[in-house]
Write a structure and sequence with these properties.
alpha/beta; globular; 265 residues; 7 helices; single chain; 12 strands; 29% helix; two-stranded antiparallel ribbon; 10-stranded mixed β-sheet
Length: 265
């Protein structure tokens, strides 16, 4: 865990979020890349492109943003990019060798009932990059107990567990695995690989309509410091992520960080 990406929007929580990112990065001796992605526009009625103006304003905004944070000796690097959000984020992650994206649930939504706003929702739903969603106003603290919820423990993708392993090793975390049997259960789904078994302390089995419902049933018993789920085509957020915006009433884990691993298969 050496390179952490923090996309910045216009939320009132932006400074608090960056402070969490810096505190988190310090634990790993990692670099923090603070970025803003802007689109290229042409001023109405003219042929004057204003992308250079947007770039300058974006860079100055990020400088002010970082100046309000105690960087604690962490290497914080400012970068601005133009382009479409998802495509640009993916290119940034590849070029900067990003290990993890730290996301605000709502980067610019003013609706109190929203858990995951449109921008963050796009990044989570439309990319395959490991991400940590940090609740608004949340203060960094060591991650001791982790609840990992899966409907299938089959792992074929190399390094899929990398972010989880890094967090466990850094904080000496206890990882409790919740295996949820859904109507889509296949034989062998609960065969836990050696790679996963090595990091799990306890395993609980549950039968629910969805992985999400399994988490709701067992969440209080585990009282975790972090929830870990996996991005899959028919995974944890299948129903929740039919739209990019997710409401708090549909997702009750808005009080702790959520680690979203890239697809394991």
């Amino acid at each position: 865990m050496k390179n952490i990406l923090v996309p910045v929007g216009s939320s009132t929580n932006a400074v608090n979020h960056l402070q969490y990112a810096v505190d988190f990065a310090k634990a790993f001796d990692a670099k923090v890349y603070v970025v803003q992605v802007y689109n290229v526009y042409t001023k109405a009625g003219t042929m004057i492109k204003i992308d250079h103006i947007l770039e300058r304003e974006s860079y100055e905004f990020l400088k002010r943003h970082v100046s309000e944070v105690d960087t604690k000796g962490v290497d914080v690097i400012i970068k601005t990019f133009k382009g479409k959000l998802v495509d640009t984020i993916e290119l940034i992650c590849k070029s900067l060798d990003i290990d993890l994206i730290l996301l605000e649930p709502r980067t610019n939504s003013m609706r109190d009932e929203v858990y995951l706003g449109k921008t963050s929702g796009k990044i989570i739903k439309q990319t395959n990059i490991p991400a940590l969603i940090v609740p608004e106003g949340y203060t960094f603290r060591p991650i001791i107990y982790i609840l990992m919820a899966l409907k299938s423990a089959v792992i074929k993708k190399n390094d899929a567990l990398g972010p989880l392993k890094a967090i466990k090793n850094q904080f000496k975390s206890i990882v409790n695995l919740l295996l949820v049997k859904t109507p889509f259960h296949n034989e062998g789904d609960f065969n836990v690989s050696e790679d996963l078994s090595e990091i799990v302390t306890n395993t609980t089995y549950s039968e629910n309509a969805t992985t999400f419902q399994g988490v709701l049933e067992h969440y209080k018993d585990n009282d975790p410091d972090m929830l870990c789920v996996v991005r899959r085509k028919r995974g944890f957020f299948t129903k929740l992520w039919e739209k990019n915006t997710i409401l708090k009433k549909d997702f009750h884990s808005s009080t702790l960080p959520v680690l979203v691993l890239s697809g394991l298969k």
